[in-house]
């Protein structure tokens, strides 16, 4: 395995501070966080995207159909679910703010286990990498040494940087917006290296309890993967999403804004298909790495003592409202995949609403450690033991636009209501409009008023 850029802080696991939790009974936690992954997966009903390994994890555990992030951008979302706090509590509402600069003493869930006798290691992107330009700053972004004993980041090998085909879809205006069929095999790309490193660490730890973060980078841009994964998606098998002709215009702050919106509006269907194909290829590449981890749990007989959590850090648009990114308050951006397989838990599908702030108390619950007070979520253990047991009545997500503008959104079983700081309002009826294309805020003033009050109470 070759990794060009590595950050490593080696230390012995700290001594247990919860004497009532014997080491032999401490479950392992495999936390698989995937970057920019929408829930267009086989197990979520897609007949196009090939994700056989995520699908088999779904068959072993509980698939949450309606799991929602608290902020649909990487850093803010991860800072939220790693602390169990909402973005208004963390103060992290962008991709440039370091969590510890806002909350220097907050205890993250890997830190909680680390301080109670678990070996804690992160491979790839669990915390947002941010703008670290040197080892010291990158270590702070990865939250070393507070949350982890070790943490590593990876880059493609020289072979893996050679492009067989691909291009930037915006003429380099958006530097991130390019795709590539790359030379080499899986371990020539960071996600393959991450899988290899996770497997090696699991194999080396024996009976030592561990929490390991496997932070896969794909399908996040740049949309590059070994060339063989593009073969799964011949262009003629792909179909572009089309907004209905009578779609309600979105408020200015909602979608289509800035340079992103300007460039997306220039896409031809050929470019849209290139984007879609590359995103799907990257998804299947990532799925193959998940499969390697699941194979390791099989081979080592670890399922009965390991909690496996699979999450996408937020959703993603692939052409809905002509948007090819995240950072909106539509369902497509706020809703994300969540699958959990835990010892003695049930298998099935949970249709109730859950939020990503619920992950921290769930991990603490299964590991038998006491979480900090004031967490925003609640343990999902009752739903894992009985997927039909329900969920929350509503879930909330926010975004900010620059320093002064903001949107707050609430999702109930029937409605999505969004209020923007410029006075714009949106209301979508999911009973008839799952794609949120018809804004009925003027036709349903009483519903909008009621949901607005709920948003105000929740802030």
Summarize the structure in short.
The chain has 459 residues and is an alpha/beta fold. The protein contains 13 helices and 15 strands. The protein has a single domain (23-392), classed as Alkaline Phosphatase, subunit A (3-Layer(aba) Sandwich).
Outline the structure in words.
- The chain is an alpha/beta fold.
- The protein has one domain (23-392): Alkaline Phosphatase, subunit A, CATH 3.40.720.
- Helix content is 28%, strand content 20%.
- It contains 13 helices and 15 strands.
- It has helices at residues 52-60, 74-83, 87-90, 99-102, 109-114, 135-141, 190-205, 258-264, 269-300, 331-334, 359-367, 381-385, 445-458; strands spanning 28-34, 62-68, 119-124, 150-152, 163-168, 178-182, 210-216, 223-226, 306-312, 338-341, 348-355, 394-401, 405-412, 415-420, 425-429.
- Strands 4-3-7-1-9-10-2-11 form an eight-stranded mixed beta sheet, with helices on both faces. A four-stranded antiparallel beta sheet has the order 12-13-14-15, covered by helices on one side.
- Helix 1 (52-60) crosses helix 9 (269-300) and helix 7 packs parallel to helix 9.
- The longest helix is centred in the middle third of the chain and has 32 residues, at 269-300.
- It is globular.
């Amino acid at each position: 395995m070759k990794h060009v850029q590595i950050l490593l802080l080696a230390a012995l696991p700290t001594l247990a501070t919860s004497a009532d939790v014997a080491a032999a009974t401490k479950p392992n936690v495999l936390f698989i966080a995937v970057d920019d992954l929408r829930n267009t997966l086989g197990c979520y009903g897609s007949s196009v995207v090939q994700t056989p390994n995520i699908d088999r994890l779904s068959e072993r555990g509980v698939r949450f159909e309606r799991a929602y992030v608290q902020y649909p951008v990487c850093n803010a979302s991860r800072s939220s679910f790693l602390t169990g706090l909402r973005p208004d509590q963390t103060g992290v509402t962008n991709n440039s703010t370091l969590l510890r600069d806002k909350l220097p003493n907050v205890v993250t869930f890997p830190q909680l286990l680390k301080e109670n006798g678990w070996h804690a290691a992160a491979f790839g992107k669990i915390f947002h990498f941010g703008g670290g330009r040197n080892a010291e700053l990158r270590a702070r972004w990865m939250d070393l040494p507070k949350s982890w004993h070790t943490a590593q980041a990876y880059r493609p090998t020289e072979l893996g940087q050679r492009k067989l085909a691909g291009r930037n879809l915006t003429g380099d205006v958006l530097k991130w917006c390019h795709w590539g069929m790359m030379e080499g095999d899986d371990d020539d790309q960071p996600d393959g290296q991450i899988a290899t490193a996770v497997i090696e660490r699991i194999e080396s730890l024996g009976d030592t309890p561990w929490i390991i973060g496997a932070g896969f980078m794909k399908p996040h841009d740049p949309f590059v993967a070994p060339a063989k994964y593009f073969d799964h998606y011949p262009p003629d098998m792909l179909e572009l999403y089309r907004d209905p002709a009578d779609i309600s215009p979105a408020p200015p702050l909602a979608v289509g804004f800035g340079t992103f919106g300007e460039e997306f509006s220039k896409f031809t269907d050929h470019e849209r298909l290139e984007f879609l194909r590359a995103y799907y290829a990257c998804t299947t590449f990532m799925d193959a790495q998940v499969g390697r981890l699941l194979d390791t749990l099989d081979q080592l007989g670890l399922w009965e003592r390991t909690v496996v959590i699979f999450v996408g850090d937020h959703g993603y648009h692939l052409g809905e409202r002509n948007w090819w990114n995240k950072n909106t308050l539509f369902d497509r951006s706020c809703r994300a995949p969540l699958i959990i397989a835990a010892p003695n838990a049930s298998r099935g599908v949970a249709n109730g609403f859950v939020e990503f702030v619920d992950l921290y108390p769930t991990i603490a619950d299964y590991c038998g450690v006491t979480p900090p007070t004031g967490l925003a979520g609640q343990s999902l253990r009752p739903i894992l033991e009985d997927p039909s047991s329900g969920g929350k009545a509503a879930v909330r997500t926010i975004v900010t636009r620059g320093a002064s503008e903001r949107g707050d959104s609430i999702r109930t079983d029937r409605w999505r209501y969004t209020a923007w700081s410029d006075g714009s309002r949106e209301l979508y009826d999911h009973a008839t409009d799952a794609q949120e294309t018809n804004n009925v805020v003027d036709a349903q003033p009483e519903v909008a008023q009621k949901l607005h009050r709920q948003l105000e109470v929740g802030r």
